[in-house]
Specification:
single chain; about 375 residues; nine-stranded antiparallel sheet; 3 helices; 26 strands; about 10% helix; about 45% strand
Amino acid sequence: MKSNYLQLMVFLMVIAVSIGACKKDNVVEPEDNKDDVIKKYSGSGSEGDLITFEINQTDGTYTIHNETTGEDESGNYTIITDNDLSGIYEINIGASDFYAVELDDKIIAANFPTGNPNNNISVGVSSSIDNSSNMNNIHGNYAYIIMDNDGIMDDPKIKEWGILNVKDDNTWIKKGYATNTGDGSIQELSPDQYTGALPITSGDETGTWVVNGENKERLDVSIDGSSESLSGFVYADVSEAAFLLDLGAGNGFLIGLRITDNSSFSIIADDYKFVNVWDNGYGAGNYSVSSTGYVNWVHQGSDGSSDGNFQLTQCTNVLNNFFYCNNVDLGDDYFESIYCIVVGDIILQFGFDNSTGDFAQYGLGAKIN
């Protein structure tokens, strides 16, 4: 009798274990164990560092690797939701707030730390891009500005803007301009004074470019007369393109947007969120552009919050998607000339102090929902 009882208990235990195993095999994982949405970008900082970005959109975290310094940064971000800056990432570090704008799988612009305290603004393009099959969309004319800490002649108040022609024979040519240089080292010209034709046929620098064999979002860029090879990064499709060229450690980067043949205020009318920096500050803003080119703007950053409005004018019939206003009131009797290049969802903007002609600020952003 005792033996039969033991046999029964063993049998029941075997059945229980089998049922438990079946239940385990068929368990449904909770929703929060699904794969996180992670976006990766590659680009440059204003000190000329090569940088990679990893944005985890699921848990609101970011990781930065600075390839030049070997330093890493990481942290959390929140998304602004309660005002005209909605959609912009806000990053709190100590007592300071920094900002970033991400246009999914296209570009990212940020003024938060990126592995070097001298990088006050950094930009990247999607690392998932394969430009080896995208050559036709890369070709074209770009209006650019060089984002660097030192400026022309080591003067941070003088910045270079200009025209870059990326050719279909894997060569390129660049012509630079500036304002208020004083010694004539580079031609003084503002974008609304540009009278040249496109594509440009002569310039300050020429070189060649090819798609990097390993990282397809990158270009290997050479300069004629120099043994140095630079890293380029391109996001381009049939309707918009952004060209980023790292200029080497200490030299910043060039960022340009494609010049289009046809543009109007009715085409670009929308809200454009951006991050920007100036000599001793940083922030984030929104340009709300109407179908007549009238802009309502808001801004917040290390200098507090502000808002205002101005009327855009097309720079020239050649620079069709390049707009400006030469008398923007930023308060306290301070006025800037502000220039905006808009193509597709992307905006590049910069400004000069009206009273001195000195560089004032620049930034990059996009239409985000």
